[in-house]
Amino acid sequence: MTNGLSLEELMKEETYPEEYAEGENWKILHGDTLKLVKAFQPGIFDAVITDPPYASGGTKQNERNRTTNQKYSSMSATNALPDFDGDNKDQRSWTHWMAEWLYDVRKACKKGAPICLFIDWRQYPSITDALQWAGWIWRGTAVWDKGNSRPQKGRFRQQAEYIVWGSNGPMPISRPVSCLPGVFRYGNPQNRIHVTEKPLQLMKDVIQICEPGGLILDPFAGAGTTVLAAVMTGYRAVGIEVTDAYYKLGSDRVKIALEAEQKEDEK
């Protein structure tokens, strides 16, 4: 490939994943993020945009140990989407795990590269700790307003998730990136293929924090939404996905959507 996405350009020798999917300007690697982020060449990514497992959905450990469908979905068992890995850690283990991959992925990023991490209110304090322990500069928080949630009498609606963001060292204001909003209002996607899938337009908006044409890394690719949004808007993207079902679902989704877009453009 000539777009900087060959395995030789991305990764150190003898560290290639056993399986990967690819197309023009994108690649999704099948494997464990903790291992694969150590294998990237230094200083190759322009941004990290990702939605990691929250390991949330409960205040007690037995609640967090439930499956991801039990925690995050109201679908019946017959219609349930596949569960995903990595969501059963307690808060201390999750924070250390986050700090470990964040530390290694920072080495693979260019100086000044932005990072955006989706999270909910329960793990918000821990993710800001992990980000800073790993050497990133924490620069603020944006809000994803989902517009609806399960109402609870006498309480505020939990209708927002958060985007904790920062940078790999100084981040010059001279970058060719416009001022972005601090609140994004999109409902949950319909007909989603992942339990915690984010809206495609939301991801198209968020990735604008990256310089035009940049190479974006999503270490938790899931449904492939970030990878798809990146390629559709003129970026290049590399994703990592450990769960077998979502590696296939996400890769197939990106391929099919981009092929359909290309056919539409050719009309």
TrEMBL record:
It is an enzyme of class 2 (transferase). Signal peptide: none annotated. GO terms for molecular function: DNA binding; N-methyltransferase activity; site-specific DNA-methyltransferase (adenine-specific) activity. Its EC number is 2.1.1.-. Gene3D superfamilies: Vaccinia Virus protein VP39 (3.40.50.150). Keywords: Methyltransferase, Restriction system, Transferase. Pfam families: N6_N4_Mtase. Residues 46-168, 188-249 form the DNA methylase N-4/N-6 domain. Transmembrane segments: none annotated. PROSITE patterns: N6_MTASE. Belongs to the N(4)/N(6)-methyltransferase family. This is Methyltransferase. It comes from Hespellia stercorisuis DSM 15480. The lineage of its organism: Bacteria, Bacillati, Bacillota, Clostridia, Lachnospirales.
